[in-house]
């Protein structure tokens, strides 16, 4: 495996306070002045390289064009499209101009997007040809009629006319809202998370601190820019450290290793689902490690990484995977395992970097090590609140600055957090709490399982019972009893699933996280179907 000692450390990572009190415009202007020719963005589909000087010039032009359309600082500029130059320009250009960058989730339905457009008061949408049918349908359902302009993934927006204004206007305040990011809304309406420029920089800084990123590092970004991981980890991380990012339009398992090699990438960020896809590649497509000589590590986020999948990936590819954890409300990363040769604990997203975390009881008081409680976070990366939703904001942010994540977890004596599941997803059987992740891991340990998720079914005798949905690997045969038996051996009969439902796919959010709360409804609908 690649060790940290292979990493060039001549461009040391900035201190935690270096960018405190700065805006994203300050960040871009700084690097454009200090390292104008260094690449920031590499777009492999068109072999396009955007230097820091190019970035500064192009986001300033973006700001002028948006202002000429009548959009005021603090108002939303929405964008919808695949990754690449266009989406990056829309994201960073909106921040540079003091507008509120509002990415639209391309896996959300038209009803949810119509709600988002109305809720944020959006007057301008930059939309790719691929996303246009979805956005037009959403706009037809919305109360307003926002302007829609074409967003070319490789060339940026097609402006109606060229602006003649002289400059990008006043710099945004570090405390002003930079990003309005809507949660996936698996229960109820999506909530609009308000992240300031300071929050976004802190999110990037936490990534830099945890992964020891420098100006010599280059990320591969394959997670969509309508998800916080793509924005704050693989865009803001390089921007804070003065590094670079390679950004293809989308993830492709068959092209993934070649993109890493050709881009001379030193790290990548993925989700467990993508790790599973890479493991399904034929053995002939296992890359020659020498072609990835600069690659230091990969990171996994957005959902729990089953230890069996984690070990299988490292065994086959010889690349260390660093498990992490983040939230939209915290500008992504809050926890990370150390890089090799530091101690990584499989099954844990690690320790705090750049913010404080605590496991607390129902009164928000710290629990002793080894005690299950709610994971709380405090730091500069914690959101301002939810747009036009004071009740949800008050429920989530405590009076003394802690953010309630809604995740159950336990912290060991070394400060490593082990997540036991969402409070709302907890299975309560006969008065006993069962963490669904524990059942998931027992299923993932079995060789034929590609994806697994346990869930609760109401029961008159026990209150709830345990069931699970499973996606099998190609060639594996459904065998309900054969999957349940090893669970009983590992967990005992009480915690083991009573039923296994075999499916072709599991419902997922934009980050690839399995939407557990939808499983019971899907299973019931299929059972009722003629």
Task: Give structural attributes.
530 residues, alpha/beta, globular, single chain, five-stranded mixed β-sheet, nine-stranded mixed β-sheet, disordered N terminus
Strand content: 15-25%
Oligomer: single chain
Taking strands numbered 1, 2, ... along the chain, how are they ordered across the largest sheet?
Answer: 2-1-11-10-12-13-14-15-16
Integer average pLDDT:
91
Give the helix tally. 15
* Structural class by sheet pairing and helices: alpha/beta
Determine the N-to-C terminus distance: 53 Å
Query: How would a crystallographer describe the biggest sheet?
Result: 9 strands, mixed
Low-pLDDT stretches: 1-14
Note down, in words, how this protein is organized.
This protein has 530 residues and is α/β, with parallel strands linked by helices. Helix content is 29%, strand content 24%. The protein contains 15 helices and 26 strands. Strands 2-1-11-10-12-13-14-15-16 form a nine-stranded mixed beta sheet, sandwiched between helices. Helix 1 (24-34) runs antiparallel to helix 2 (52-68), helix 2 crosses helix 3 (85-96) and helix 4 (110-120) crosses helix 5 (132-141).
